[in-house]
Amino acid sequence: MREVVIVEGVRSPVGRRKGGFANTRPDELAAAVLDELVKRAGVDKGDVEDVILGCVSQAGEQGGNIARTAALIAGFPDYVPGVTIDRQCGSSQQAVHFGAQAILAGDMDIVIAGGVESMTRVPMFSNMQGAKPSKKLTDQYEIINQGLSAERIAEKWGFTREQLDAFSVQSHERAQRAIKEGRYEREIVPIRTQGQTGETITVTEDEGPRPGTTQEVLGSLKTVFDENGVVTAGNASQMSDGASAVLLMSADKANELGLKPKARIIARSVVGSDPTLMLTGPIAATRKVLAKAGLEIGDMDRYEVNEAFAPVPLAWLHDIGGDPEKLNVNGGAVALGHPLGATGTKLLVSLLHELERTNGRYGLLAICEGMGMANATIIEKL
C-alpha cells in the first residue's frame, strides 16, 4: 500500500497587515517559499508534478491561479502545473489532502502543497465585489459573519470575556517565548523585500505577538461584533500576510531519491458543519480523523487548532477532552496571525518542527472554515 510522507516544510514569517510585507506581492512571496522548499529538500524543480496552493481572496494579485504564477516566478519549468483552491481558512490544509490523495491514487509521486494570503494587498472579501448571499441560501440558513458565530459559540459553551482574554494572553506569552527561544527559526524562510520607506529589509520573525499583552490591556478593548458580547480584536486572530508549503512524496519515491522524510500522513478528514455557528467543525473533524487513524486524543503529543477566535479552540478542548498543555504550545493565530490561505500549511510546518523539537510521535491539526466546514490531519514523525 502506498504511503505519503512529508519530506520538507517551510514558511515565511507572518507579517502584520500593513506591516513588513506591505510592499510584497503575494505571488512573489509564495515564489520565495516554493524556491526555498525545494532547495532545502534537495529536489529538482522539474521533478515536481503539481503545485497546489490555497488562497481565499482570489482577486487582483492573488487572481489568475496564483499557484501557477508563483511556480513560474520561482523558476519551475513551464511543464510543472499549478492549481489554486479555496476551502476558506483550511485551504492549504486541503491542498495537502488533495496532494496526498493524488499520491495515494498513484497519479503522482511528488507534489507541493501550500498556501498564500496577503490581507494587506488583497483585502478580505475583495473577491466578493460586494455580492450578497443568494436568497435561496438565506431562506434555508441564517448567514452571519464569523465574529457573530464566535459570539454564539462563547454563549453556547458558557465562556466569559475573562476566559477568552486569558487564553489570548497565553497565546501571546507562548508565541513570544517561542520566538525568544528560536523555536520557529528552522521553519522560517527570511524574506528580502522593500520596506515602507523604500529601503531593502529582510523579514525574519513573525510580527504579530505584542509585548505587554495582559489581561488588563485586553479587558480595556471594546467588543467588535456585539456591544454586549465578549469577542474583541484582542481575542480574535490577526489579519496577516504570509506563505507556506510542504513537499509531499510517496515513501517509495523518497527512498528512491535517497531522501529522509520528516513525517508520514496517517489520516485526513473533512466535514461540513452548521453554517451559522460555522466554527465548530474542528470538533467533528477531529473525531472523524481519530477514528480513521484508530487513535485517541491521548495518543497525540501535540495539536494545533487554529485560533480564528478564542472560543474555537476552547470549545474544541471542552468537547474533545484535550490537554491544554499540548494545544498551540508555541502560540496561535491570536498572537501570530492568520494569513487565511497560508494558515493550514503554516500550522502543519510548525507542528512538524515541534514534534522534532520534543521528539513527539503524533500530531493533530484542525482548522475551522467559513460557511461551516473543517479539515483535520494526523501526522506521525519519522
UniProtKB/TrEMBL annotation:
Family, as annotated: Belongs to the thiolase-like superfamily. Thiolase family.
Stated name of the protein: Acetyl-CoA acetyltransferase
This protein's UniProt keywords: Acyltransferase, Transferase
Q: Which InterPro entries match?
A: Thiolase (IPR002155), Thiolase-like (IPR016039), Thiolase_AS (IPR020610), Thiolase_C (IPR020617), Thiolase_CS (IPR020613), Thiolase_N (IPR020616)
Cite the PROSITE patterns for this sequence.
THIOLASE_2 (PS00737), THIOLASE_3 (PS00099)
Chain ranges of the Thiolase N-terminal domain: 4-251
One GO molecular-function annotation for this sequence?
A: acetyl-CoA C-acyltransferase activity
What is the active site of this protein? 89, 338, 368
Signal peptide from the UniProt entry: none
Q: Where is the Thiolase C-terminal domain?
A: 259-381
Q: Does the keyword Acyltransferase apply?
A: yes
Any Pfam family hit = Thiolase_N
Reply yes or no: does the keyword Transferase apply.
Answer: yes
Against NCBIfam families, the record matches this protein to: AcCoA-C-Actrans
